[in-house]
Amino acid sequence: MSNELNGKTALVTGASRGIGKAIAIELANMGADVLINYNSSESLAKEVMEECQKIGVRSQIYQADTSVSGDVDKMFEKAESDFENIDILVNNAGVVNDRLLLRMTEEQWDQVINVDLKGPFLCTKRAVKTMLKKRWGRIINISSVVALGGNAGQSNYAAAKAGLSGLTKTAAQEFASRDITVNIVAPGFINTDITNSLPEKFRETMLDRVPMRRAGEPEEVANLVGFLCSENSSYITGQLFCIDGGLTLGG
Ligand code: NAP
Description:
Helix content is 48%, strand content 15%. By secondary structure, the protein is of the alpha/beta class. It is globular and about 45 Å long.
């Protein structure tokens, strides 16, 4: 364990599985106390909490559907009474609900926009209050490379993730003078439940487009998030970083 984030408290949304879990463990390894948000996977969230505690930091789980403002308010009230301040927020919780635009229902559109875009807005608004008082903060929004170029069948997801760019760049400007940085990490094709549930043929077609010819691992995304949470990234704000094995190079 390093001590780069000693004394800091981090809240990671959607940390019960996949990329969020890897981020929670990376931040614990950097010395931060880690608050693990989940929606439905309580037992998996507890396992992540126990893993963080074994590393030697304080950790707690918090259930909340991050697209629901009442849930977010309750989570922050409890988290702030348990841990006082939240110094680092990682807006990672996300869902996909793919269909070609002509067949996409209003419900599919709303679900993805609410979880992937409104959720980060609600959590940022709450978390930034204590960051402003402390004059220090790190907010990392987990987007996707589809925010840059769109993707057939994902108009809802691409719109939500592109919207996250607008939210990030605006928040970065509003909070920069208080040493609160807001950045985006945009993964390409990463080995998690989302991508493992895709049909094999689609996975193969996707991987053919990746110059590194493999999917990324959640831990590789977590390393970048860890850097952006650290003091070493102190002059970086409002930026988007792709982590995609070269996918967006278009070669
Ligand atoms: P995942 O394995 O499916 O995990 C999703 C996580 O989000 C789970 O912890 C889930 O919690 C949580 N979640 C979903 N809806 C939620 C809600 N309403 N409130 C709170 N938590 C909620 O996904 P992943 O692949 O790790 O993706 C994580 C992030 O990376 C997402 O924002 C995704 O868009 C982005 N991303 C992933 C890839 C990829 O290739 N995997 C690529 C680009 C971007 P429960 O289990 O408790 O429901």
